[in-house]
Write a structure and sequence with these properties.
Length: about 140
């Protein structure tokens, strides 16, 4: 049965773009959308899709939490080590130390930028260290 419908200009453009990208007719897109919308099991499929997406987001958040905790612990360990092993400088050496510190900071930032862009990443080193030796490739 052939029917005629009117769509807003924006929706018609979106429909045309979607159909073109999928290489199907606009009628096929509309038919599939209506079938899905009117299907009695539509809500269950939608709920299942949401559940899968929420599960994936939960796993991503778990990984993110692990990386944040690793970063926090690494920074805390470094700060504690630095504070306990670095003696205060006498006033006479302070200017030279500040100049040297500025130069070292700039090199550090350059190295950090290079590692972020090209690797290797600390997370990869740590992940390999966490695997038991028998499960490591090689």
């Amino acid at each position: 049965m052939k029917r005629s419908i009117r769509l807003s200009a924006d929706l018609a453009r979106h429909l045309a773009d979607h159909a073109s990208a999928r290489r199907v007719s606009q009628a096929a897109v509309i038919e599939a959308a209506l079938s899905s919308h009117l299907s009695p099991d539509g809500p269950e499929r939608l709920e299942a899709a949401f559940a899968r997406r929420l599960d994936r987001l939960g796993r991503q958040l778990d990984r993110l939490q692990w990386h944040v905790e690793l970063s926090n612990e690494t920074l805390a360990l470094f700060i504690r080590f630095w504070l306990t092993t670095t003696p205060p400088l006498p006033d006479a050496a302070l200017k030279a130390a500040q100049a040297s510190g500025k130069e070292r900071w700039e090199r550090f930032v350059e190295t950090l930028n290079r590692r972020i862009e090209l690797g290797p990443r600390l997370r990869d080193d740590v992940a390999m260290d966490r695997d038991p030796p028998s499960s490591r490739p090689g």
